[in-house]
Specification:
It comes from Frisingicoccus caecimuris. 42% of the residues lie in helices and 23% in strands. It has 20 helices and 24 strands. Bound molecules: adenosine-5'-triphosphate. Adenosine-5'-triphosphate binds next to strand 2 and helix 1.
Length: 633
Amino acid sequence: MFELKNITKIFGNEAALRDVSLSISGGMNYIIGASGSGKTTLLRILSAMDTQYEGEAFYHGKNLKELTHQERARLYATELGFIAQGFHLIDELTVRENILVPSYLKSDDPERKLDMLLRKFKIEKLADQKVSTLSGGQKQRVAIARELMKDPQVLIADEPTAALDAKTAREIGELLTTIAKERTVVVVTHDTSLIRGKCSVFELDKGVLCKCKVTDTPSKAINPSKQKKSLSLRSALRMTGVTCKRQAGKLLSLVVATTIAASCLAVNFSGMLSGSSNQAFQELLEKQGNSVMNLMIVSSFMNASGTGQETPDAVQQVSQDISGLLEKYQDDSRVEAIIMDAPMDDMVVTLDGKDFIIESTGQAPVYNKMIAGKISDNSKHEIVLPQILVKKMGCTNEEIIGQKLDFMGSVINWDSGKPVTMPVSFTAVISGVADTSYGMEFEGEVMTFEHEDSLFPSLAIMRDIYEQAGKEDPSFNFIIRPDSPEHYLEIYEELMGAGVVPLGQVELIRDIVGLKGAALAQAGISYTLIAVLSVLAALSVCLLCGLMRKKEYAVYQLSGYAKFDIAVLSAVEYTGVFLLSGFISVVAAWILSIPVWLGLALSLGVSVVCFAETSLISSLVNPLTALKTGGRG
Ligand SMILES: Nc1ncnc2c1ncn2[C@@H]1O[C@H](COP(=O)(O)OP(=O)(O)OP(=O)(O)O)[C@@H](O)[C@H]1O
């Protein structure tokens, strides 16, 4: 069965084994020798845990050094049971759950066999007790029962009685002798009192095989066609159920860390931060009205107007070429609305034969926002009226919209260099009603004014009026309403660059954008910090859980789980973590009014990263170092 040829194992300058050759055919086999003589080293080679040595070791003719990962997993799952000094049990699990660990890789029903083993090893009353609460002898029985669950051909035991009292040691010894009647048992021991009956004994002295008593006991092939299964989803779910029950604390901390990380990242990536930093801007709009967002494009204006220095000398008429700008900006996606300015005086509107004089304020146009209907269609004779005028006419917004009204007034023609007042008139359909109020803050009080002469005709009406007034200048004054303060400044700079001075509250908007940027940066830094810390916390918790479960992963490996099987197990566990943290993230997203998909996507991302981290840890676990297999660990 085992054939070892000229095995030499060197640690540093010291040889733990020197030119050891032996063969094990079946039955009971003892490897004995003083402490440090190389027993455990030999046992690790026999069990294919250590493949770094000189010489060759064969199991049923197969060179143990040449085993692939899959072959090794099959060997551990079906043929080789290994009982180590530290018992290699998963402390959080019960006796029953520990014994069942190898059974998840098999297709046969484990329950009958489990009951039989529990009875045989007299541990049926302990079945639902956590193994951490058991005595050394009880743990050893559980460890042997678990290995027998594989129905192995060979059972290898490292100092199985080392930590036991004499009576329990004898019982365990007898148990192993009974097992050796059916299978090959290899026991490493100091305790020569265990050696009884028909057996082979190999004695090591300072790494050299000094004595050898071989009793030829041919090995009985136990179900040699046994095949290892991959861990099925059903088994992985059952194992995850057990893990959740027994290691709820670890999994819960993972879920919490994942949820916090995902929620903080979601808050960071969502528009929530910019939403909160927009608050100052919204407050300004509420106080002063939306008209602070207007950019007036005019073909002529008085310089120094509004500066407080309007002395006759300082004030000058400035003319600028605004032709083509209306066409340029009317389809611009940054522009919320374009409103035409009607520079008319002495306006009268006629409704049902009754004339209403429109009072001139000299401050028009003021456009705050649309409150009913829509902005006039530039290709039609449509007009937007101020709400204050509609009220003056005794109508509701709904009543006035769609009505066709007659308008009269005058336009000043400056084409000759002198102002010539020209009478104009037109008929227009009312397309909408606008709020034309604006607020002014005075000693902490906000006063609101409304303009009834802020009418907004379509381009078609403007063309008509200018034709009636005989104006040659084709440029019409209009208002650009950008959709955000950032776009306001962008368009402003664009116009200035093109040599056109737009009129508006540029400095105020600049301050707002500056403030918003600073608030955003500040909030962004803190949320990024929280998010990074949360991701780090999630990864650390996951790393910690992975490291804490190293022993468990090593036990799985020695129970025959391939790396893929452990990855399937982790995938199922992290799917659970994702579902739970995803659910909490969805609730958090709903409460925080951030997009649900973002919380879900980030929970998924964090879970996938944690899964990758755990899979990496489990695949790097080496049972040799993760488990105590002998004096040096
Ligand atoms: N990982 C290691 N690194 C360095 N030296 C080691 C290592 N493992 C074992 N050795 C050395 O190899 C020699 C044999 O050790 P081994 O553990 O095989 O002896 P042993 O007979 O099992 O001893 P014990 O009965 O005390 O467990 C010892 O000198 C030991 O110090």
